[in-house]
Design goal:
Elements (H helix, E strand, L loop, with lengths): L2 H17 L3 H11 L3 H23 L4 H5 L1 H23 L5 H11 L2 H13 L2 H10 L10 H29 L1 H4 L2 H24 L2
Organism: Kitasatospora aureofaciens (Streptomyces aureofaciens)
Subcellular location: Cell membrane
Membrane topology: Multi-pass membrane protein
C-alpha cells in the first residue's frame, strides 16, 4: 500500500468516526449555542490537540503501554471517568437565569478555558488511545518511516475534525436566539450535562 492510498483509506475510516455523534459533538454544540464563540473554538482545537498527541504517541510506540499494562489503562480510565462526571454534574447544577449566565461567562473564560476542557476530555479518554494503537499501524505502508507516516495520518484526522467542527459551530450559532431564553439555557445545560455524565459512567463501567 502506497502512502497516498493509505491517506485516503484512513481519511474514510476516521471520517466516519468523526461524523458519529458523541461527547465531542455535545461539548462543541453546547458551547457554541450559548454564544461563546472563542471558547467553542478553544474546545475544538483542544480536542484536535488531544487527537494529535494520541497519534504522535502511538507513532512513537508509547501508547502501546495502554494495551500492555492493565494498571496504566485503569488509572487513565478512572481519571477520565471522574473528570467527565465532575464536568457533567457542574453543568446540571447551573442556574438558568440571565444574571447567572452572564456570571458564568466571566468566570469560565474564553479560548484558554475551552482549549483546556477539550484537550483534557480527549486525553483522559483511554479508548482514543486504544483506537489509535489498534487502527493506525494498519495504515502505515511497509517501508515508510513509521513515525512520520503515523503523524501524517493523524493530521488527516485532525483536519477532518476541524472541518466537521466548523459546521457544528455554524449550526449552533443559528440557535443562539432561542437559547438566550433562561429556560432554553437550562434545557441545554441539563441535556449536555446528562450526556457528559453518561459518557463518564459508561467509561467507568466499561470492561
Amino acid at each position: 500500500m502506497e502512502m497516498t492510498t493509505a491517506l485516503w483509506s484512513f481519511a474514510l475510516v476516521v471520517g466516519l468516526l468523526t461524523l458519529t455523534p458523541g461527547l465531542d459533538t455535545a461539548l462543541i454544540l453546547r458551547t457554541s449555542a450559548l454564544g461563546r464563540r472563542r471558547q467553542a473554538w478553544g474546545v475544538v482545537l483542544g480536542i484536535q490537540t488531544g487527537t494529535l498527541i494520541w497519534g504522535t504517541l502511538t507513532s512513537a510506540g508509547v501508547t502501546a503501554l495502554l494495551t500492555a499494562s492493565q494498571v496504566a489503562y485503569e488509572v487513565l480510565r478512572w481519571a477520565g471517568a471522574a473528570y467527565l462526571v465532575w464536568m457533567g454534574v457542574g453543568m446540571l447544577r447551573k442556574r438558568g437565569t440571565e444574571a447567572a449566565a452572564e456570571q458564568e461567562e466571566s468566570v469560565e473564560g474564553g479560548f484558554g478555558h475551552g482549549w483546556r476542557r477539550g484537550t483534557l476530555t480527549n486525553l483522559l479518554n483511554p479508548k482514543v488511545g486504544v483506537f489509535y494503537v489498534a487502527v493506525l499501524p494498519q495504515f502505515i505502508p511497509a517501508g515508510a518511516p513509521h513515525f512520520a507516516a503515523g503523524v501524517a495520518l493523524t493530521c488527516v484526522h485532525v483536519v477532518e475534525g476541524v472541518l466537521w467542527s466548523t459546521l457544528l459551530v455554524g449550526f449552533a450559532r443559528v440557535l443562539r436566539g432561542w437559547l438566550r431564553r433562561p429556560a432554553a439555557r437550562r434545557v441545554m445545560d441539563r441535556v449536555t450535562g446528562a450526556v457528559v455524565v453518561g459518557f463518564g459512567l459508561k467509561l467507568a463501567l466499561a470492561d
